[in-house]
Specification:
The complex is a heterodimer of chains A (223) and B (167). By secondary structure, chain A is an all-alpha fold. Chain A is built from 10 helices and no strands. The chains are: A mainly alpha (223), B mainly alpha (167). The interface between A and B is medium-sized, with 31 and 39 residues.
């Protein structure tokens, strides 16, 4: 393309903004390099664009935003004094906050219980780190001792049960009850049959015998 | 809100060269945006572009309304103090030359025709691209480019007449 001063002026912004194809930009530059008028024009416009880009934004007045808000969403009503003081409590009634507060309280109760802090007679000594440590240590040992005792008790119960089962003799063969015709009008619901009664008596006798044996065992073991 | 306020205020200030007018116009813009918000459709363009469009319409209305007053008024009386105070307050280390250049640039902008002024402000001060300016001005892209180009050349000439040569 053959550039003249008029074309240069028309496409100047395209050239400065990088909107010209490479070949055209090269011929553009070639014309500008050989033309004093266009050199001066390009330099001044380039300098101007740079200065405009570097121009700092002006800060709006501080009250502008509040004035706009007053005009659009209306002037903010001033609350009465006690309402403004209690305004923060609105957040407390949010479910999230309430659940969070509840969790904190429960955690505190559990921790203080574990530390052995006695709140019925609160003293400053309760909050002493040494006392807190001692209480925590004592509680930990107590918990361990209770757990060990519970485990031991369980073992005794299991032992009793297993001995009861091992001492239980084979069920003696019993004669089948004579078939009796059901009395008319009598229901066939669950009721204590002679066989069930025998089992119950047998279990009671066995337990009594075992308990007395267990009771007497230490006495017998004595010399 | 803060971002839009700042942008709209700057647009108004650069167009009117008057801080008080810019403040009043910014309030008017937001009032109009608030009232016409239900008519805004995303198909029209980004919200920022729409707000710019509302601002531009108000600025043109304002320009037409105050044309007579402007003939007897001179911005030279108020502009330098405002600009200098603003810039010095924000950046104490700002060199006097840059502050002075800003004052002269604003003065030169005020001498452009509204068509060229708004195109240059939107492109070189607000950083809008050609498509956004086309949407705001509702003119073809070729016209937008032509106005920006003519605006820059005209502004450079005005500055040259004022004896200012930005490097």
């Amino acid at each position: 393309m053959n550039w003249n001063c008029e074309n240069i002026e028309e496409r100047l912004s395209d050239y400065l903004d990088g909107g010209l194809p490479k070949a055209e930009a090269a011929t553009f530059s070639a014309h500008v390099a050989g033309c004093a008028r266009c050199t001066q024009l390009v330099a001044s416009v380039r300098g101007l664009v740079g200065a405009l880009h570097a121009l700092e934004p002006v800060a709006p007045p501080p009250h502008l935003v509040s004035s706009i808000l007053d005009q659009t969403s209306g002037p903010r009503t001033s609350r009465s004094s006690w309402r403004s003081w209690l305004g923060w409590t609105r957040a407390v009634w949010q479910p999230r906050f309430a659940f969070g507060a509840l969790t904190v309280v429960v955690t505190l109760v559990v921790v203080t219980q574990a530390l052995g802090v006695q709140w019925h007679t609160p003293t400053l000594a309760d909050l002493n780190p040494v006392n807190l440590y001692r209480s925590a240590d004592r509680e930990a040992h107590l918990i361990y001792a209770r757990g060990a005792k519970f485990f031991s008790d369980l073992r005794v119960v299991y032992e009793i049960q297993s001995r009861l089962q091992s001492n239980e003799p084979e069920a003696p063969p019993q004669k089948p009850p004579a078939a009796q015709p059901a009395a008319p009008g009598k229901s066939e619901g669950p009721e204590t049959t002679p066989l069930n009664q025998n089992h119950a008596d047998y279990g009671t006798k066995q337990f009594t015998r075992f308990a007395s044996a267990l009771w007497m065992a230490p006495a017998r073991s004595k010399p | 809100m803060q971002r839009h306020t700042r942008r709209i205020f700057n647009l108004c200030y650069r167009f009117t060269s008057n801080r008080q007018e810019a403040e009043d116009l910014s309030q008017e813009v937001f009032l109009r945006v608030y009232r016409t918000l239900p008519s805004y459709r995303s198909a029209y363009g980004a919200f920022g572009t729409w707000v710019t469009s509302v601002t531009r319409n108000l600025l043109i209305d304002h320009y037409r309304r105050t044309r007579r007053d402007r003939l007897t008024d001179s911005i030279e009386d108020v502009l330098p103090q405002v600009e200098e105070k603003e810039s010095a307050g924000r950046r104490p280390d700002h060199s006097a030359a840059v502050v002075e250049l800003g004052v002269h640039l604003q003065k030169a902008l005020g001498k452009l025709s509204p068509d060229l002024r708004e195109a240059v402000i939107m492109r070189d001060l607000e950083g809008l691209d050609y498509r956004e300016i086309q949407t705001v001005l509702e003119v073809p892209e070729g016209t937008v480019k032509s106005r920006i180009n003519r605006g820059r050349i005209e502004l450079a000439r005005v500055l040259d007449q004022m004896g200012i040569r930005p490097d």
